């Protein structure tokens, strides 16, 4: 009987990575799986020239450059941006919530107007701090506990605001004083772009749409 340093049960992403790294370190590894294929739930089969996800669609995402560079050694990844649209009673709503969603619900056109309407909904509901995720985003099987007009009619509730305030920036500055934290942040930054004109803003945003990492904008205007 052959001798192995490691027995790995499961040939999915985790097991496959562990096995490869162990072999690279000079170890002898046996990988077993109850299924007749590798890749676990991300396994695909070619059907009429198309890679079909046998166990349902899987989206690989990471904000760690080391991980991204590692997986790109083995396969070519297709660019995908998750931009769902909700159809509620014949009307379409952009998700996650953005200015288009707010415009459809309330007719507002600026972030300040949207923030004012959100604060109004919070006051009507008597909510100062969301108690759980369901209350925060309005995703629940129960009756929505908020006395609204436009929002409730459309089956949606909003609590809070996604805009950052002074405290958020102060916390971010304090967080980045930690060298370890700063090092991790730097690993997800792809490039720093100098903004000298309005055209530079448009260009940098267009480039960032197809970039899996973060772009830092250095404002010179």
The largest sheet is: 2 strands, parallel
Give the termini separation: 71 Å
Structural class: alpha/beta
DSSP E strands, number:
8
Radius of gyration: 24 Å
- The helix/strand series, from N terminus to C terminus, equals EHEEEHEEHHHHHHEHE
Determine the oligomeric state from the structure. single chain
Q: Please indicate the percent range of residues in DSSP E strands (runs of 2 or more).
A: 15-25%
Helix content, binned percent: 25-40%
* Inertia-based shape: extended
Number of helices: 9
Strands, helices and their partners?
Layout: E1 6-9, H1 13-24, E2 29-32, E3 44-47, E4 50-53, H2 65-71, E5 85-88, E6 91-94, H3 99-106, H4 111-125, H5 133-137, H6 150-153, H7 166-175, H8 179-186, E7 189-195, H9 198-209, E8 214-219
Parallel strand pairs: 1-2, 7-8
Antiparallel strand pairs: 3-4, 5-6
